[in-house]
Amino acid sequence: MTVENDISAVVQQAPLDSRSAELLAHAYQRYCGVELLTQRPGYCRTGVTVTESIDNLGQTLHGGVIYSLMDVTSMLATLPMVEADSYPLTTSLAISVLRAAKRGARVTFEAQVTRAGRRMVFSQAQARIEGSADDGKIVATAQIIKARVAAPGTR
Question: Is 155 inside any structural domain?
């Protein structure tokens, strides 16, 4: 299945909630070229192509971009699970970077909620290289904890 077909299937099956759409429309996500591949409550998969805009001097995906896109993908997995009056705020992000993704590589980020309590949401994430000689190799893994706080404008 192509990325375009996957995206249109997600949109046709379940339109993005307004918070997810707002997150994807944010300037940083647009700058990085984040594409939503799959989203459902508790799960999300996004992708980027490593470009000069998001690489480092070694022409590999910048570590800060890896960190932030793990967090964004985790947020997209979490948002459909939380009530409109709460907002999942990241309190802990632990990442292990295992290999570099070279400029031009396609990298997918996948996040899965592992536990959702009344106050905290726990998720795991991975970044993988796709569509090259390194296809399927893990770039990084992460454990992310989010606290449920009052959504802006609700209190």
Answer: no
Domain at 109, CATH number? 3.10.129.10
What the block records as the tokens of 30 is 């647009």
Domains contained in the chain, number: 1
How many other CB atoms are found less than 10 A from the CB of residue 50?
25
Domain extent at residue 101: 3-150
Longest dimension (CA), the chain: 51
For 121-154, the pLDDT digits (tens) are 999 999 999 987 778 899 999 999 999 998 887 7
For 104-117, what is each residue's pLDDT tens digit?
Answer: 999 999 999 999 99
Question: Distance of CA 1 to CAs 8, 43, 55, 135, 136, Å?
Answer: 11, 19, 28, 16, 16
pTM of the model: 0.86
